[in-house]
């Protein structure tokens, strides 16, 4: 892909690559691998009406998997990662860093100082790419539309995280009725609920442990279904291989007309494709590509070919094609592995939900929740307890309410295709503005992949009243919460920006003899990077005291996945040299762990002393237009004065400790 240098350049040895590829099998592919249980039953709920319909549907499945899963996601979308992280917000952050489309300032000098903030883009200019960028930057409604699209896509992925466990577990457990027909649908439902409850209880152990635990089971699953699929292909009808000819799709639509369009349940074979991108931060691009191409994709193709071959001889078995086509002696072993695999299948979208909520939280688009980093080696592997319990309750509610995979499948299809189309829309912007890809390549992608996804979406919307409304309800609720939070977040920032304290008033307060001096170091937190928050004057007016050493701390989340540790803190001195007042900008990416406890405090003070000792008492943040805090560069202070200020910081930390001042306006 031209200009796709946005991917991480981190060099990983083969040992680490194979380890991550193996782990990814247990986390990323469960949903994609178990879709074989409900795809054909969703297309042929009442059996196969025409013998050649099987070839048309198989051709649709093969081409859908090739175009969407393999070409689009594995080889194009993964290249649009944000320093190794994927998901809807990763695409949005790429666009925000290239064009000024964020509703909050995000291309300030202190942002661009971060080494991995700048995008590596082609040097050549394209007029049409510049025009697209200009339109997005100048039209305010375009900025809101871009943010809203991102929020909707994020909400749909969380909706996937609710529906995936339901349909996966129900579809596998229902297979037991083939051997024990006396079991009722309600019994299957309650067994599924119990399994779902246990699944969400193990999430606290983290992706790393879950991946290692689940990977062997899913590896066995993919090997088994691949071998059985190849066996059925040879035994029943090897002639189904001719389904690679796309003319069978045309014949299928000509023969069945509207019914073919309505029955495009082929979309269910693509479930889990978005997880390849959304879960990328837990692994890396090469590990996903390796595991997909070497194991997952060949196994899935073989099992669909095998099922089609079996159905050519047993047209009425389409409602339970997978279980009915398993050789007798292998039924119970495959049933056990299938149940385990579908439990694991839920993991891919659950992990993806954690990742995108963390990204949304860091960019001010989600209410504050506790984020637990479960791996010291891979920072993007997170667990969010509150989201985990909400997903668990929603999954159990959907399972109890819908009871069958057919109804859940109607809802699931809308969520899957909506996410795909929104991802494609953002991807086109990345290809146009950032990659500056060849126009013919972009048109080809739009006319093949994007139009195919819109066709699937039009089909699945036909089933809106049959359960398809559910993901849209989820999306409306989640998008409403996210937009409301972001609206308040932006307005709070703008209030502080418009009412910031002039630097002259800060000097007056510091020199006012009626203000008592408290022996301590105070850390006053604010969203502002330039200027002093009005919270400060409110505090002084009510307390009538000022701490000996004052540091204005600004926690800033950048539209980037990670900020290098050595570039985390950015200091400058405010006011006169004899007044120990400093500004500290602490920069985080949306996957960085924001440690606000003892370690953060000691690290901040240590960096402050380093800043003073280096005699760089000058503006680290260069002047920016409208920055009332900017002062002429002051000369370096001498060694004695630097030592005095450092000693002052140490003494006040010992005598009065560190005081945290956090206010709301």
UniProtKB/TrEMBL annotation:
Where's it mainly located? membrane
- Write out the entry's keywords from A to Z: Ion transport, Membrane, Potassium, Potassium transport, Transmembrane, Transmembrane helix, Transport
Q: How does it sit in the membrane?
A: Multi-pass membrane protein
The cross-references to InterPro entries, in alphabetical order and at most eight, read: K+_transporter, K_trans_C, K_trans_N
- Which residue windows are transmembrane per the record? 20-40, 60-80, 179-200, 212-231, 260-278, 290-310, 330-350, 387-406, 412-432, 439-462, 468-489
- Which segments constitute the K+ potassium transporter C-terminal domain? 519-608
Q: Where in the cell is it found?
A: Membrane
Domain named K+ potassium transporter integral membrane: which ranges? 20-506
Signal peptide start-end: none
Q: Enumerate the GO terms in the molecular function aspect.
A: potassium ion transmembrane transporter activity
A cellular component term, taken from the record's GO annotations: membrane
Give the protein's biological function: Potassium transporter.
For this chain, the family text in UniProt reads: Belongs to the HAK/KUP transporter (TC 2.A.72.3) family.
Q: What is this protein called?
A: Potassium transporter
